[in-house]
Records
---
Amino acid sequence: MALFLFVLTGPNSGDSIKHPSGRGAAVNRRGHIVTQNTTDRDAGQQIAGIDWPDDVSAISESSARDLLAQLAALLQQANVDYHAADAPKLTDADYDRVKRLNAAIETAFPDLKRQDSPSELVGAPAAEGFGKVKHAVRMLSLSNAFDDADVQDFDESIRKFLGFSGDQPLSYTAEPKIDGLSLSLRYVDGVLTQAATRGDGETGENVTANARVIADIPQVLQDVTGVIEVRGEVYMSHADFAALNTRQSETGGKTFSNPRNAAAGSLRQLDASITRERPLKFFAYAWGELTAQLAETQYGAIARLAELGFATNPLTQVCAGPADLLAHYRQIEAQRATLGYDIDGVVYKVDDLALQRRLGFRSTTPRWAIAHKFPAELAWTWLKGIDIQVGRTGALSPVARLDPVTVGGVVVSNATLHNEDYIAGTGGDGEMIRGGRDLRVGDWVQVYRAGDVIPKIKDVDLSKRPETARPFVFPVTCPECGSAAIREEGDAVRRCTGGLICPAQAVEKLKHFVGRAAFDIEGLGAKQVEAFYHDEMLPVKQPADIFTLRARDAKAIAKLKNRDGWGETSARNLFDAIDEKRVIPLNRVIFSLGIRHIGETGAAILARHYGSWKQLAAAMDQAKVGSGAAWDDLIGIDGVGAVLAASLITTMQQPAERASIDALIAQLDVQDVTAPDTSGSPVAGKTVVFTGSLEKMTRAEAKARAESLGAKVSGSVSAKTDLLVAGPGAGSKAKKAADLGIEMLDEDGWLALIGDA
Ligand code: IVH
């Protein structure tokens, strides 16, 4: 019987029953008060295989530790049996007794309380939202392939990176991409200790209590020591989704628009007793921190996870190359409608885990995997209007207002129209789109969604165009501030020239600033920041104003806590959440500024290069667009082009922008970039340039390896270069390095230096 599987019978387990006299004692040997909950049974009796002590304070520490382990396993399994599998094996009374015994031991031995203590389990809603969990290994997303050619490119780029010829064998796994939400499960010595959502990839939400009531998630792994983090997707089947929605509408509860939202809403319940009633499932497909490798191959690792008791997807298969991958993709696509759960593509992964390690990661995605998405879903509807939104960089973006229509299970009422050329029927490279047909208010249009992206318009049916429909006239002034909106040479986008005086730009900048990848302040989302922007008592007009809110509120007569919708606690929580983000990594600060052309990746690259805000700002003070040492240094950074560089310099040197940025920085404690743990690395912190041809690895691999050892890799030689690695055919860079007296190595010398020889 399952319950007995988890009962430990070590040499100490007998110690616990040797005190027949103490039942009901008022004070124990340590002077603790012993309540009647120490024993509900006579000594020597068992519940579910637990040897029952009569006085918990009299048992030895090692017995207490053993008992706590037994009780944790027993109660975890009982929860699953009761809540998820709906097949209780303990009576309610025994369940309560076991729980009380656990609590009594924890009271007597507070230091032995386990990380996965059952007293923290289910039913007790966390007071304020979920706790945060920093992932030991980041949870990444996947880059996408949309057609066969993208899959060929994926294979080619991997071969190129690894230096594999076209006929060298290179196999992949292919498996369905489950449309749910990812979850990371941490097991310590085989016991589930923590479950966390992906969050921003670095920090997720602690949903441990909820994961404990999902039947597919093993609470205990047999014969496993050390840490094992299993990752996979929580999802809801079509049948369970339909039944849940029926139940919800019958009871007047919230219904969900698709199984993914239902799964997310069910997992992210503060009260785990609600999660327990929602039929969630889980497929394991990846891992995070591991004390021991699972296998040599991806396929082997998945098989090992299945062995450990996880559900793994039966459509996972090893494929010999792109042709095989595409064949398996079509097979899965053909089965899609009958699987009984939503999938939105097929994920391909390099099978050999040693090759996966060599390939490594880009800033947010692995090089060794890709998601081949299914074609977008389509629907026809009426285009009711076209609105113009002004973005944080002043871009005037047309938005289609649609008669609401369901596209792939989601109700769509807006779609992006990109820019004025797009409305007129011209694409980004001047090519015709929709056969050159323009879009007019009143048109019958075809809408599509691909994955999570914003809906778009694919086509227009001219036979349904009303006679009154007129070509759309794109505004030449900003609808928000009235400033001229101009299109610069080569820019498809028309932009408001109002800068900081344009309220729309200011609000959008603030929304970007508080976004998830930027400051991500709890309780201060897009809605709140917009409200503060318009607030007369406590206005927030620029990011720095967020950090003076507490001080301004303290001096104000009309306090935030006295306003409608606010209270003492919520106001204090907001100020605390803001203060918490004063200490912030450099890359987030750079990204948060919302500078055109600087996304998350660009911000991370800049942060890594400059290391501190002080150095970045100093470099920008000296830089000139197009020439000079600071400019050369900036565009010498791999991944930084002239467009990004010019945008950064111009913004940092524009007086009003700079004043706003400096005011913000004055409020913060910006953390310097901490290099990866490269203790012992001979090249940590050094600037390395590769030139000439390399024979044992590709340039991309050499660069990735150097960076993983904490080196900065630059494309050009300058006085800052510490080391030049020159292969055969090295030319002007080698000469310049020699002139500057920079240390030079050949490829073998480099490999010997970093210990890869
Ligand atoms: S592998 C490091 N495999 O897709 C790579 N992801 O778009 C880890 N997903 O965040 C992901 N099914 O939530 C992987 N079979 C599968 C998947 C899968 C669904 C999700 C996952 C991930 C997202 C990326």
Note: The radius of gyration is 30 Å.
---
Amino acid sequence: MDKEEKKGKPGWDKKVGAARKKPWGGRFAQGMDETVEAFTASLSFDHRLALEDIEGSRAHCRMLLKQGIIAEEEARLIQRGLEEIEEEIRSDSFPYDLSLEDIHMNIEGRLVEKVGPVGGKLHTGRSRNDQVALDMHLFVKKETLGVMERIKRLQETIFQLALEHLAVVFPGYTHLQRAQPVLLSHHLMAYFWMLQRDRERFAGTYKRADIMPLGAGALSGTSFPVDREDVARELGFARLYENSMDAVSDRDFVLEFLSSAAVLIMHLSRLSEELILWSSQEFSFIELDDAFTTGSSMMPQKKNPDVAELVRAKTGRVYGNLVSLLTVLKGLPLAYNKDMQEDKEPLFDTVDTVANVLNVFTAMMGRVTVNEKRIEQAFESDYSTATELADFLAQKGVPFREAHFVVGGLVRYCLESGKKHLGELSAHEISSFHPELASEEACRLLDYRQAVEAKKCRGGTAEAAVKFQLEKARQLLGETLI
Ligand code: ARG
């Protein structure tokens, strides 16, 4: 730097020029270093908030007019300018300028360019701190509704699949070992209920995002006679922040979105894992549609469940985004800190990831082929009705522990004598293990369909109970949560 540069004369160096252009440039004798400018700017990502920013500014401007803080002609010019800017953004002709740091200052700068110095009155009684908080609330509210709608579509698809294969008996697992037979519809509907909780979680997220921060100013409120209720009404917010410092420091609603998304994608990852297993040659319970699989560049026979695998993997970034923002916020003193600018990329990435995942996953689930024959074959070598027999003995008064041991012996006998399922045992063989087993009823219980039908309790896997469940689910799909 030469001597002249240090004096910071305007207009002779582009860095100084940039400083003059900054809305906050008044206090600075020198321009910003280019690397700092690039490092601190958020425009490359927060341009996504452009429409929310304009919506918020227009409501703020209307309120300033109503409260007599700005004149009618001033408000008219500002509104017209904002309208034009909105058009430029929508038509992708807005002249973004990185030296103006973020989307808020880009829009304000453009407004002044369009309508003259009166554009500078828009920021009366407002700070970028409450402005960006407002934009984030509007954005999270909108995206939350979007996710909820997409979750619902996936629930509908799962519901349909369950309905279509209502009575198919399916091996139920614990520890990924055959446990007890269930209906495939029952297994699928378990995911419906997980997704229902996800939808409810997002409804809660929405509720806590539905709170209006504008009027908080930089941190302490504003001395202008603003009407915060009016802005909240105009923008469709249910409540106002009651504390200006909380209003500009709070990103809980972003965290909640990220954590609701983390639970959601964990569910989708679990279902993905099942689809991957079920579509493997070892299981062959389902077939994924060709359109949702890929081939191998080397092995001609391969059909890979890439979509499900990627959904399983995307869980990593969604969890990462949550942990990232939790870490950013941890230890921040009140009120606004620049750290908080780092809330956006994790949010945007999660919004996009979850939207893409739900879209492709729903389409894939809608085209799953269930291999009913193969599923039925699974029961040709299976001991998963053993619990029925133990329960039967317990009902006859045999202590359950003893009953468990007796039936365990029966299973061992089958294994040792090469019987692939308990149904291969003769009545005589069965009754030799316990006198109470000398009954036709005991033999009937070994049928896996019978085992399913016996689980009539509410929430059980008997067909009638699953029908009841489906009816509940149908009702819930008709209800709105917000
Ligand atoms: N780009 C900033 C953000 O996203 C806007 C708020 C800036 N406020 C400030 N005082 N520097 O957080």
Note: Residues 1-20 have pLDDT under 50 and may be disordered.
---
Amino acid sequence: MSARILDGNALSATVRGQLAERAAALTARGTAPCLAVILVGEDPASAVYVRNKVAGCEKAGIRSLKFTYGLDARQDEVMARIAELNADPLVHGILVQLPLPKHFDAEAVLEAILPDKDVDGFHAENIGALAQGNPRFIPCTPYGVMQMLKSEEVPLKGAEVVIVGRSNIVGKPMALLLLSESATVTVCHSQSRDLALHTRRADILVAAVGRPKMITGDMIKPGATVIDVGINRTADGKLCGDVDFETAKEVAGLITPVPGGVGPMTITMLLTNTLESAERAAAGA
Ligand code: GUN
């Protein structure tokens, strides 16, 4: 048996179409939604992500500003830029692409972003609000995963969910979101003993570790929903996820591909957060 494919490109196209209408309406009312993106250093993957984010904005009718800094950039100049963008009423979202170069204190940089413009949802205040079940901005990748699960009406209440990976960007906020939907959530990581013992129990398995094809078909419960957040490159330059798609699709009931799964939804939710921020600003909220 072969799993159904959960197509992130198709869902993205639908959601982005609705966003474009909202962006046009807001612009017509005198508020042009605007996202500022800051890229520091020379990480090639980050450069691609930022290019895709800027292109996504343009297609949805959201203004974008891009600020790039070399590997030798000083933290204080990036902080000065953030302060300027915080104070600019025409900017509704500020995103600093991660990872930052090693000589940066990433936490200090993220904390410098005004929580009302933190469309990544990485500021401690926004993580706290999410943990309390009262989110201001939901981090884009887990937000996209939730939209995908909801679009397929995957039952969440009481479901056994296993998340592999405990990052601040995906694993931890993913766990909070699924908990708030009354799922039973297990978070596994590199130190977990007998990973397969956990993954085989999962009705919903979320892989977010950054290790190519580490989740194989024998680790999946028959009929499970498998969400692959990984974006890795194989030795021959091809993109692949954290899930071994070929063996997993024979066991799973529903599965996201890489590329064309979670990736496009991450950018879609960034656009959603930016637009929402602009709508709040226009409403004086
Ligand atoms: N690097 C990898 N994922 C992300 C993300 O969602 N936001 C930012 N700012 N950087 C990232």
Note: Residues 95-98, 120, 140-141, 169, 266 surround guanine (CB under 6 Å).
